[in-house]
Queue: 2 jobs
Job 1
Amino acid sequence: MRTLSRAALRPFVVPAATVLAVTALAGCSGTATGMDDDGPASDTFPVRIDNCGFVTEIPAPPERVVTIKSSTTEMLLALGLGDRIVGTAFLDGPVPDALAQAAADVPAVAEPMTDEAPGSEAVLDLEPELIYAGWESNVTAETAGDRDTLAGLGVATYVSPAACKDPGYMPDPLTFDDVFGEIEQVGTIFAAEDAAADLVAEQRSALEAIEADDRGLTALWYSSGDDVPYVGAGIGAPQMIMDAAGLENVAGGVHDTWTSFAWEEAVAADPDVIVLVDAAWNTAAAKMERLARNPATAEMTAVRNESYVVVPFPATEAGVRNVDAVADVVDQLGELDL
């Protein structure tokens, strides 16, 4: 029997028979135990996962999955598991071109790019074996269903570990090892360890090949908000991407994934670059107009020089698009006259 190590802050996967012995270790180091990759999948299941403080059981590799949020849908597509998705919802934008063909036949639970997660009735009508959610709020009584209730109905739930809110589970800070750890864990859940290992190796290689901008540029990661901007703070995906791209986050001192950040603070910081999150409901173009229209922000160096970098919303949350986001940010920085 083989034991796969997991990073210290990652949730862990263990055989059902030993879950009680290890649940007390939640938030610390963990392991995934199973047969060799060429062994029968039935010998590795059921597994139980301590996921954001909720112990969920996966009795067998799921064949019917509902994904909520772009990050989870794209994770399964990147692993070649798109045929397991019986419904997807709460998409934050189009999938990248490389996954477009695989996504073409994935049915929607609700309209793409909706503001709301699907309700439990719509989800249960699809008879899923697993709900894979990008946020903990996607699996509540007000959305797809309370996790305990769903478990009682035979529906397992798994939340992206990067989205865990409990301090014992939230990555602090989020790193690419955490992102790659989720890929590996999803591979374990679906008995797709080889595909997960290949994807992680590919992404590690791509990340290592990126040459970060070395000019010491400062940046504000502007996601949304008018009167008060909502920006990337010091421990989430925006910080991880900016670090890898060579940018110093002017809101990096805020110990959170995202934060409200007064315009006065942004103006005082006067960043060299503003990273604009492009979302259907709040486009990068609209943010540029807002910055230029506001008398205070219009005087910021980055606004006067139009020193903008644009990142699509789905790439701003932990997932398979983060490495490409770093490369894209670096490429755009190289095009700016700074």
Job 2
Amino acid sequence: MIKCGNHSINFETPLVMGILNITPDSFYDGGSYTEEKTILNRAEKILSEGADVIDIGAFSTRPGADDVSEAEEHKRMVPAVKAIRNEFPQAILSIDTFRANIAKRIVNEFGACLINDISGGTMDDKMFETIGELQVPYIMMHIKGTPQTMQKNPYYNDLMGDIKTFFKDRILKLNNYGVKDVILDPGFGFGKTLEHNYEIVARLNEFSDFKLPVLAGLSRKSMIYKYLGGTPDSSLNGTTALNMMCLEKGANILRVHDVNEAVECVKLHHMIKSQLK
């Protein structure tokens, strides 16, 4: 169980995190949610379909994405968080940012949120200290490089060993700052080849050694449509299939564009597991 403000989040049943990209250039739905009305409509849909958390991102981290200034990220983020907090005050929010100052400003202004850092603290050396000060849950993703460089021939001596070493070292640093509520994300598509991504799915259960919740975020990513053919738009079925596999391998959170389908995955997986008791 982790605490996020007044909310206690347990993982007896896997959670679903709905993606709300308020960016003009995200790989799947960029530009769809940039006005208050469309942002609130998307948030309402996420919640009504059964998501446990809304993950708000104002900086596209797709491979090769353009850099965005901190000022621009903050300018995009504030109106969205304010509108959602006003309309859905009980919603649990996650702030998708690698910048410590963005995390601090949003939490101080709008209250406790999860901080979802795609860089695992590698792109802002103040992030771990800031999370310790804020005492909010931290989603630590593994990445190799930056969004601009990560897909340029990523190589590992030992894929799972390297990722686990990354997590082990950085969990110790977080603990030194008093951070205990940590969620691990292996970072599908962030400095991984197609084969790397599928090896991580196949071996996702190995992260249970850390005794921390594990997030799987592969919704509509290129690991699906580059293998099956098609585009992000045609990748819902592949996403659902892989989400079910990730649940079977121990995922505690599914981060998705398509909430209803992920919620159905969780329900069906729970039904199957209940027959074994």
